[in-house]
From TrEMBL, chains A, B, C, D:
SUPFAM superfamilies: Aldolase (SSF51569). Keywords: Transferase. This is 3-deoxy-7-phosphoheptulonate synthase. It comes from Iocasia fonsfrigidae. GO terms for molecular function: 3-deoxy-7-phosphoheptulonate synthase activity; aldehyde-lyase activity. Residues 1-68 form the DAHP synthase ferredoxin-like domain. It comes from the Bacteria.
Length: 339, 339, 339, 339
């Protein structure tokens, strides 16, 4: 942490801040510049937020953090890529680019069975589908709840797929955990800290989606919440951020792939469906993601998008999905990956 | 809802969409333009999201919602301003601009008692303070929990102030409700739908803070979640949005005051402390808010900001707070309000 | 400037950077932290950008600027508020809140004469109106050009108002200067550096509008371009920034008033018309601006908004404008200002 | 254009607007919904902005544009991809992904010659380099001007490369045109309409960079300015937009590639150097761009980034650039393109 003093800070002001820093158990290292005085704080800055309270000093202009705020998610803590093993031949974060696919919402047995068979045939490994749906409107379809989870699990079992599904309420972690292989935390819940802590005690991996306006730091700190409670199997998922551009549903930040992989050892999955909100853009976005090193993709597939209860406009039909996976194979191969 | 067909849509494509609309129970009203065909959907669009599933049709270019998505929060439902009565002489949404003040976090008995006395003396009506703190880092001070709630309640009782405090977990609604007069929902939880639903069944008013990147529509829809469960006493609180400008902690959207009051009958409170993140800017922001018609302000006050465990840089000292309230009185008066 | 070395930087890497810094004529002051090494660069950092080229070193993680990049616009250079005198009793940046008003575009003699008389009567001091219009579409009305300037000047002369109008092309500075009292630089041209330089040689004051996504620093640096060429009479104008919220045309950043006044000595004017894009919001925004310390307002007024060739939806009718100014007077007075 | 009337609009209000629409030469087609009345405007909406002036009617809630505002740049005008031929075997917009490379600024003969040779050897077709530099600070290196253009041209000629360089001032179009093969318009000048018009009369192709906060529509309208003056050889260049995320210099919007290609027939080039601002991210971003269908890349290469006068941190060394092009070849091939 670097403390920048105000332009007109006098020696006694600097002294006061230095004393406070040392009172807090750190060493203060002052540089007297031509116009500005800065104070470097040296020590093991575990009590970062405490130090931030220095902000109350009127003589201080600003404080500049130097060290990344996270520990467990960072490359300093662990420099090899984390591999999350779901079965002997299904590892997220390994050589294979893992494909998760399925409908936005589970709507009924026929729909989920048909989709499961289609995505399995095309080459997906994991079946996705929502039983608890975060909806902007209280009047929208909220999902089938446990009934949906049962259908999802059944469809996955019959097709030998693994399951990923969203959990929204800390009280539902145990329930959802009975039916899923991976917990999904949605973008709106990225900083639902009680949910994150609850998942930190769970046995299953967690795929954490980046919040609509979450910085990389905040995203990684949310993963840190889960890891700090003991669950180290966290997957980061970029699904588009909110910007001024509203032609697409979100702005998919594909450069987050190399950024997050530079900063963290956790696997990175891309969601081109929510990231673009438009089935015509899902294919190009998926190709970019694989070329840029994504460890997986989560793609919405619906047997009849025009009749979907949610997200029809961003869902692929099975045939289109199948031909996309074929195209992705070529890109994966030249990128040193498998699909 | 207006459906815009693609440029080259043929008559049979238009027919197909018209049929689907009527299948869904609405009337389709088609306008054939020079280059574009648009279809107006007429009827009581309760099943808005269902209609959105039309998005799966490849012949459709886009759909444009015409009607506001909310009902209970809107001016169409209720055109007179909602007044929330906390006591005989304390109404939020009435003539008086209500002042909520106190520390970011409750840190101990002495701190909260001292602050309570100071803000009461200056003219505040409601004591604020966090016992459960949403913190970006799991290693930051997370609040004193129930112990904090007890201290807050005690300080408020001794100074005849009402209490507002944050609830983050749906499992804590009952607990927090024992100590507070108003529930606060933080910006990060604005779309924590399970929490909102739980609060929809509570007896006490709820102050809902706007999410960091929530549009007005999303903000109002979150309030709709609470109201749709039966709790009509909702207060909207603007506390700054996230933009490209990072000199201030957030960009305080003061124009939201007239916008929200045009769209909704609910009271609007401004948080200049989080909205700016800088105690030097709190005063000007508070003045603007009162001049623009805010129904209340929530301001962080700390007896010794330099030693605060959180948010020291945006907290006012009691003396500064007191002189601010004096200045606000003049603005309230020329604006036809009391303070 | 603080250079932050990568986590694994070795002593020789640090040495290399230190040497380069000293080669460039500065002193390097290194702090060895627990995990990070940072190097403070001390000296008169005129060659800021040169120093930035250090970024090419792979051993460096990032560089953190400490000093503000501007000189002439800053409080360090001049700590008293700049007053720009247009006539004996018309000063921008003084006690009086200066009102600029008029139509978006000059459309004809009758329109501009009628508007001039109306805004004069209501209490405005300066007549605004565009003769050269920056339009998103090449097919939109582009303004009347010199003919418009003549009408504007004539209307202002007959009503004893001063004139402000936009200049878009460096080749038009001389032409526009013949008719105006203040040059206006539009948001889209805030970083049209050749235009800024040309205006730096002009005799007349310049009102510089903040770019749609310009940070405070970039805004002030654009003013610095003008001042660095010798023209010290620069007025800063906030007119709304671009954010994710598109209900309003822009997000009016009213907190920029105290921020810019803390950082700079230049006067600050607010444009509530472009800032909100909606005539119903202009009044509240103007009130907030005066309460927060704005030195002036620029407001669009049109005798018949429904027939305006541009910006009809954000223009006030003369009667509404007049009653707004009356309301503003009260706020100005309690804020220690005149209107 | 769809006009949405306010909730309480009466028949006479609707009539008034209908009359005005027909006065303007269009047909009004009214749909009476359950709560809302909307009016579709039918006709050849050339006078779009005129119609917008309807916004002045207080009975209107909003107007929703249905038709895209551009003509010449759109797929409706021309449905085949535009190919811009620079020489017999160099076409932008054809099968080959065209590589433009070179330093940010031309700094001297040795630097530009060395870079030209290196990028030619690696496989680039076009040499880039700035002689007129748009710099945030007036005190930063502003480029070598005509001297730089001469060096650039000389280096390109000796290595059989084509030239692209930026023009910032409408007065310099003729001068720059003597040395370059393609004009570049920088992001800050995307809406410098006088410059765009001037380039609309030029003989050479123009590469237009997207503004920092320009929507797709605004970007395409800026291209329309050039085309509407007669120059049809326009190349669109995405170079990153401004968002809340400041870890990277900009947020590179790679999804713009399929979006712009759906909306327009013009070629799309990606700038991964400015788009990320970090040489470590240039490679992954370039790979994504090729996989997603970009027609070209513009990449900053500097023989000694650590000593560059600008943008050192985002420049590749020649060796790194060469190996990147090799990797891109594989991706281009599986995507049905050449490099």
């Amino acid at each position: 942490m670097i403390v920048v003093m105000k332009n007109k800070a006098e020696e006694k002001d600097v002294k006061k801040v230095e004393n406070r820093i040392e009172e807090l158990g750190y060493r203060a290292h002052t540089i007297q510049g031509t116009n500005k005085t800065v104070i470097g704080i040296v020590g093991d800055l575990d009590r970062r937020e405490l130090v931030e309270s220095l902000g109350g000093y009127v003589e201080i202009e600003k404080m500049v953090p130097i060290q990344e705020p996270y520990k467990l998610v960072g490359r300093t803590f662990k420099d090899t890529a984390t591999e999350i093993k779901l079965s002997d031949d299904l590892i997220i974060g390994g050589k294979k680019v893992v494909i998760m696919a399925g409908p936005c919402s589970i709507e009924g047995e026929e729909q989920i069975m048909e989709t499961a068979r289609a995505v399995k045939k095309a080459g997906a490994s994991i079946l996705r589908g929502g039983a608890f749906k975060p909806r902007t409107s209280p009047y929208s379809f909220q999902g089938l709840g446990e009934e949906g989870l049962k259908l999802l699990k059944k469809a996955a079992d019959e097709t030998c797929l693994k399951v990923i599904t969203e959990v929204m309420d800390p009280r539902d972690v145990e329930l959802v955990g009975r039916y899923t292989d991976i917990f999904q935390v949605g973008a709106r819940n990225m900083q639902n800290f009680y949910l994150l802590k609850e998942l930190g005690h769970a046995e299953l991996p967690v795929m954490l989606k980046r919040g609509l306006s979450a910085s990389y730091n905040e995203f990684l700190m949310a993963a840190e919440y889960i890891m700090s409670e003991g669950n180290y199997n966290v997957i980061l998922c970029e699904r588009g951020i909110r910007t001024f551009e509203d032609y697409t549903r979100n702005t998919l930040d594909l450069v987050s792939i190399p950024v997050l992989k530079n900063l963290s050892h956790l696997p990175v999955v891309i969601d081109p469906s929510h990231g673009t909100g438009d089935w015509r853009l899902v294919g190009p976005a998926a190709k970019g993601a694989v070329a840029m090193g994504a460890d997986g993709l989560t793609i919405e597939v619906h047997p009849e998008p025009a009749k979907a209860l949610s997200d029809g406009q961003q869902s692929l039909k099975p045939a289109k999905f199948e031909s996309l996976l074929e195209e992705l194979e070529g890109i994966a191969e030249v990128s040193g990956r498998d699909l």
